[in-house]
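QA checklist item 7 of 12: single-chain prediction sanity check.
[x] sequence parsed
[x] length recorded as 402
[x] structure emitted
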Amino acid sequence: MPHLSRRTTPAALALSLTLLTALPALADLQAGRIAFSAGDFATAFKEFNAVAETGDSSGQYLAGEMLIQGRGVTKDVRRGMTLLEASARNGHVGAQSMVGALYAFGQDMPADYAKALSFLRPAAQAGDVHAQNNLAALTYFGLGTPRDIVDALHWAKRASSKRLVAAIKLEQEIESQATPEQVKAAVERMTQPLSPPAPVPGPAPTAQVAAAPKPAAAPPSKPEAKPVATAAATPARTAPTKPEPAPAPVSPPPPPPPPTTAAPAAAPTPAASAPANIADAAPMAPNTVPISRPAPKPAAAAPAPAPPPATAPVAAPVAGGWVIQVGSLPSREEAEKHWKVIAAKQSGLLGGRQPSMVQADLGAKGIYTRVFLTGFADQASAAGLCSRLKAAGTDCLVKKGP
């Protein structure tokens, strides 16, 4: 019987070398996930960052997210965004959704709706539910793009079909403003398959980011429950051991009412949350975009003004402590209405907590009223409640107290 020799071709050798090179990266990712689950965020960041420096998109995503949150490492939004954008350009859908949400929300950076759209659209086309919701919100309000009721309703319907609470509310709001013809066109578009995701525009990064900053001194001792980013997770889960421990992307904050009949949108009810779609223990969670209906036209004869409604009681903010932001709205009245909805819906989780209403100057957008839950001893306890709220359909983001 003739002897058949096996010759290793250059292509086979290259493939083998590639696979062998990938093994340490996979091991580092697994080690990072194990550390993250144990609450050892400093070690988790070290492992994820080592993988990120090889150009791996999952490592870039995880390390970038932890940098933006300041979890296990000194907070560095600029460097975190560099990593997240590199991951997004490498095709990581979760990173695309999160970067788009962060640019839409403008948390710790100037809002840039054009950039937000360039990252959200590919993620939405890839099926990311939070990206679809955030893309619908930006398109509905004409932020960074011409207002398009049909396209906005189409994306809101896709997201609401996956039972995302924020998207269901947004779909109802858009339908209330759409004509029957526009609704029909959006439904017809729903029956068409999604286009293949387009690459994120812009040059890919040419250099690796600088060495990791100094890890934070004392990571939390207990693992935190974290939603998994599928465009921002909604189901409650403990820190992932297989999926990536990422907070959910956030929905865009409410813009000033456009010069149309559209009602102003409310900031992520954490995401982010922020863009709300900003998250459970980081400014990355809000995905809910509560929207105010347009005010009815005034009657011919205005009745005598009614006495002002009683305002919701507020809790005094804890200076320097950790808070959970559950809303950011254009007026105190809207913020109080928004809180009443949350309090009724999440009474079991809130346990009688009262909000702190804090005004924030957002520059060109005007003065917004932010709704905070206060009184948390540390970041971990705030993140835990935020995670449970998001799992129950209310977006939020955790941040240092005002």
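[x] summary fact logged: DSSP finds 13 helices and four strands in the chain.
[ ] second reviewer sign-off
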